[in-house]
Design a protein that fits this description.
With 155 residues, the chain is an alpha/beta fold. It is built from five helices and seven strands. It has helices spanning 18-30, 56-62, 95-102, 125-129, 151-154; strands at residues 8-12, 33-36, 38-39, 69-70, 81-87, 110-116, 137-143. Bound molecules: flavin mononucleotide. Flavin mononucleotide (FMN) binds at residues 14-20, 48, 50, 57, 87-91, 116-120.
């Protein structure tokens, strides 16, 4: 047959572990490589306490700040399909996802966005991320309530 094997990456950011669990399950289910998008300066509990107007998360959001990422994906060019996961922050993707996206060439990549949230949907996240990933085809964008919903991402 000789069909080219699709090479898949699951890249995710998770501040509190919920998205991480789904990302790990997804990578296992699909045989994908896994890359954790870690801010160079890790978030402390105080940093993500959004009820505090002066917390880092609010300053980053309001200032539209870039959030530098630790490390890089090796062999990025080899991936055809990228699952990009994150928690919904302020009805969208956290700034660190924008910064991650800006760091790579997305030409020809197929992209599936997945997120966890406290109840919000994924909103206009795909439209908002698209300018940071020119050339990518965003196939899907979905909030997952739990691992049982992973199958829905794959179809
Ligand atoms: C700074 C911040 C902003 C958030 N904003 C939202 C929001 O707008 N809507 C929502 O449903 N949940 C919001 N949440 C809750 C997270 O989306 C939810 O707890 C998510 O599952 C956390 O994923 P994680 O454990 O992978 O970090 C927010 C959480 C934080 C820390």
């Amino acid at each position: 047959m000789g069909g080219k094997r699709v090479k898949t990456l699951v890249a995710y950011f998770s501040a509190q572990g919920t998205t991480a669990k789904l990302a790990e399950a997804l990578a296992e289910r699909t045989g994908a490589d896994l890359f954790e998008i870690r801010p160079r300066e890790p978030y402390t509990a105080a940093d993500i306490k959004w009820t505090n107007p002066l917390a880092r998360c609010n300053r980053e959001k309001i200032g539209k700040k870039d959030v530098p990422v630790a490390g890089t994906v090796s062999d990025w060019a080899s991936y055809d399909l990228v699952y990009l996961g994150f928690p919904i922050w302020y009805y969208g993707a956290p700034n660190v996802i924008d910064t991650f996206a800006k760091g790579y060439d997305w030409t020809g990549k197929r992209v599936v966005l997945f997120a966890t949230s406290g109840g919000s949907g994924i909103g206009r996240t795909a439209e908002k991320l698209q300018p940071y990933m020119p050339g990518a085809a965003i196939l899907k964008a979905q909030v997952l309530q739990g691992p049982a919903e992973l199958e829905g991402l794959l179809s």
